[in-house]
Specification:
The chain is of the alpha/beta class. The chain has seven helices and 14 strands.
């Protein structure tokens, strides 16, 4: 598997940046995980929108879905320009029916509801879900392909169920919207210490901190998380590639 960070800011994109968006590739299949504000502009540095094979959405907050509409229009316009491609499947939960219906647009994209209680196969990827602790229904993902495992927490306060869910993962792509001296529980987010403990107790090989705050010294997140986890820790960066 090859994971490329497209956007990593929490809440909204920092100047010239993008909020949540992650491109996962395996055996030539291109899966976009979340599609927040600024993601489409950044994605085109590594992949044309018409070359995506599927999209999956963790939840319907705008910093994870804002560019769905512009992705749909990009593919619409490329169709007008003569390119021929099938409707793009966009997977999302159906617990917000109003937002779910937006995933379908003409014959350009088709919304497909995933059942979080069941395993989902998209191309070469097998995905299982865990409901997170967030103000709206949101699902973390355990993504497996080629004998490797990536955990994407999406947005969540820490919960004990994460430990078993993330056990032995090769990469933990973990939200980290708060510093160690802050509590993100009420907002449904994790801090750096919790991310480090999660990585340590789950025995993951590598921790990537993402969904980052817009203030403070981001390197402090690394040092705080490393007080709990002695393995490889990195801050998410634009176009960062993690190959497995």
């Amino acid at each position: 598997m090859k994971l490329t960070i497209i956007g990593y800011w929490g809440g909204y994109p920092k100047k010239n940046g993008a909020s949540s968006g992650y491109l996962l590739e395996h055996d030539g299949f291109q899966l976009l995980i979340d599609c927040g504000s600024g993601v489409l502009a950044k994605l085109q540095n590594v992949l044309e929108p018409e070359n995506l094979d599927a999209v999956i959405i963790s939840h319907y907050h705008p910093d994870h879905t804002a560019d769905i509409g512009v992705l749909q229009h990009a593919r619409l316009i490329q169709g007008f320009l003569g390119k021929d491609f099938p409707p793009l499947p966009i997977y999302g939960h159906h617990y917000d029916q109003y937002e779910f219906t937006k995933l379908t647009y003409k014959n350009i994209t088709t919304g497909i509801a995933y059942d979080p209680a069941e395993s989902l196969v998209i191309g070469p990827f097998q995905i299982t879900f865990l409901k997170t602790d967030h103000p709206v229904p949101c699902y973390a993902m355990r993504i497996e392909a080629g004998g490797k495992v990536i955990i994407y927490t999406a947005d969540s306060a820490f919960k004990e169920e994460f430990i078993e869910f993330g056990q032995g993962a090769d990469v933990l792509l973990c939200e980290c919207n708060f510093y160690g001296n802050q509590s993100g529980k009420a907002a449904g987010h994790m801090n750096s210490l919790e991310a480090g403990r999660f990585a340590n107790h789950a025995g993951v090989k590598q921790l990537i901190l993402t969904h980052l705050p817009h203030y403070g010294n981001l390197s402090d997140l690394l040092s705080e998380a490393s007080s709990e986890f002695t393995g490889i820790i990195k801050l998410a960066e634009e176009f960062q590639i993690i190959s497995l």
